[in-house]
Amino acid sequence: MAVVLKSSQEIEKMRRAGRVVREVLELVRGMVKPGATTLDLENAADKRIAELGAKAAFKGYHGFPAVLCTSINSEVVHGIPSAKRVLKDGDIVSIDCGAIIDGYYGDAAITVPVGEKIDPKTDRLLKVTEQSLHAGIAAVKPGATLGDIGAAVQSVVEAEGFSVVRDFVGHGIGSKMHEDPQVPNFGEAGRGMKLRPGMVIAIEPMVNAGKPEVRVLRDGWTAVTDDGSMSAHFEHTVAVTDTGSRILTD
């Protein structure tokens, strides 16, 4: 596996791409409400990315048809925005966005509750998934391992009775959307590749309220929980520094 270490100048380009992603996610977060469609979010994101002088990373990637991935309730990842997908009170929607600046990528995701009536278990799923992301990021430092990240995520999730999706993982990122190494959200501390300054990875826990198994729908993209349980997804692009980590999509 060929891991590409980034220079400080390359990381700065990724930071700029990461800022675009964060601005777009905050814009569409504010639009999430009952009656909005996922296409409304898509159109706003498409416009804002262009205004910020960036290019959308997902549209056309392996044929994906949209700027955002919008995944509702039991949809885990890669949901396709549509005028037919109307958000309802009590739903949750995962919004994943990527942007390119000067040939370098940023990638992040949030999961947002719709309206005021989200049930307590689903609310806890969102909080725990976000906590697990930050636990994974806290494990990032030179000499730590990919297993340290996965173990940190997994321990937070499973302590709350939820499950980590195994079929999709985080990834290296840079001048390509997906680079080596793969970054699982599960594993054993101390195992796997050691982290080095200049590595940049996307850490992205995907957490199910029920069992970890997923399946892909007939559209060839949308992954859903096999048991129909709710799923949440949070993601940051993170650089390994000499002293620890730097979140590029904050």
What characteristics describe this protein?
globular, Creatine Amidinohydrolase, alpha+beta, 250 residues, Methionine aminopeptidase, five-stranded antiparallel β-sheet, Pept_M24A_MAP1, 26% strand, four-stranded antiparallel β-sheet, single chain, 4 helices
3D structure, described in words:
The protein has 250 residues and is an alpha+beta fold. The protein has a single domain, classed as Creatine Amidinohydrolase (Alpha-Beta Complex). Helices cover 28% and strands 26% of the residues. The chain contains 4 helices and 15 strands. The chain is globular. The model has no long low-confidence stretch (mean pLDDT 97). Residues 12-242 form the Peptidase M24 domain. Its cofactor is Co(2+); Zn(2+); Mn(2+); Fe(2+). Keywords: Aminopeptidase, Hydrolase, Metal-binding, Protease. A divalent metal cation 1 binds at residues 96, 107, 235. It is an enzyme of class 3 (hydrolase).
